[in-house]
Amino acid sequence: MRTPIIAGNWKMFTVVEEAKALVLALKDLVKDVTNVEVVVCPPFISLLAVKDVLAGSRIGLGAQNVYWEKNGAFTGEISAPMLKSVGCTYVIIGHSERRTYFGETDETVNKRVFAALSEGLKPIVCVGETLEERESGQTFDVIKRQIVGGLANLSVEQMASVVIAYEPVWAIGTGKTATPAQAQEVHAFIRKLLNDIFGQTTAEATRIQYGGSVKPDNATELMSQPDIDGALVGGASLKADSFEKIIKF
Ligand code: PEP
């Protein structure tokens, strides 16, 4: 039985005071939730403040990216030991916005995954096809390339800490959600790939989130698909009440 995981990707929204207020409201709204793992991923600058507000709650803390070196002359980057030091347990890796705007590749995703794991952080590895790729029939090829490349050389033990997020790029921030059937089809494909690479036990245990315009009114139907184990939520995680409704799908 896989415990659903619902993570909020706040992207580049909220200054520190707004981040604190958002998580304070959320903490109260979801204080009785025990059957879903909840994670918030604020911008780097708010991680420490959010961690303080989260004291005593079950909500986990995640970052939105991590660099693969531990330290050094890499101006502007943040390493896995730094994330760990502020209380992160999760880190989003390979989000499509990072692939599109910041040159992220399957190879750099893989380096970041290893860096996160080496500090005990759990990677949320994002994969997903663009509209052009879907319309030209390349969805499964793209997902396969991203999964095989992003998770290359991971052991079964390491894979136990990894969460996958299937996020069709055409559904992110667009208001267009994949239909539950479209999402389920890709999730089942990912699980089959995991089975081929890591074996059945790992494939059945790995949580695969759906992401892309998840809202309170479509969360239940998406999450009731057999291979969808939660959601990675952007826009709707920036309001405590809409995120709460998704968490309580
Ligand atoms: C995301 O940022 O991962 C995301 C899915 O965004 P949205 O929910 O706004 O589409």
UniProtKB/TrEMBL annotation:
Which pathway does UniProt place it in?
Answer: Carbohydrate degradation; glycolysis; D-glyceraldehyde 3-phosphate from glycerone phosphate: step 1/1; Carbohydrate biosynthesis; gluconeogenesis
A single cellular component GO annotation: cytosol
Q: Show the GO MF annotations.
A: triose-phosphate isomerase activity
- Please give the Gene3D superfamilies that the UniProt record associates with this protein: Aldolase class I (3.20.20.70)
- Binding, substrate: N9, W10, K11, G173, S213, G234, G235
The main location class comes to: cytoplasm
Q: Which Pfam families match?
A: TIM
Where in the sequence is the active site?
H95 (electrophile), E167 (proton acceptor)
**UniProt EC number:** 5.3.1.1
Q: What class of enzyme is it?
A: isomerase
Q: Which PROSITE patterns match?
A: TIM_1, TIM_2
Which HAMAP family has this protein been placed in?
TIM_B
Name the family the entry cites: Belongs to the triosephosphate isomerase family.
Subunit-level organization: Homodimer.
Q: What is this protein called?
A: Triosephosphate isomerase
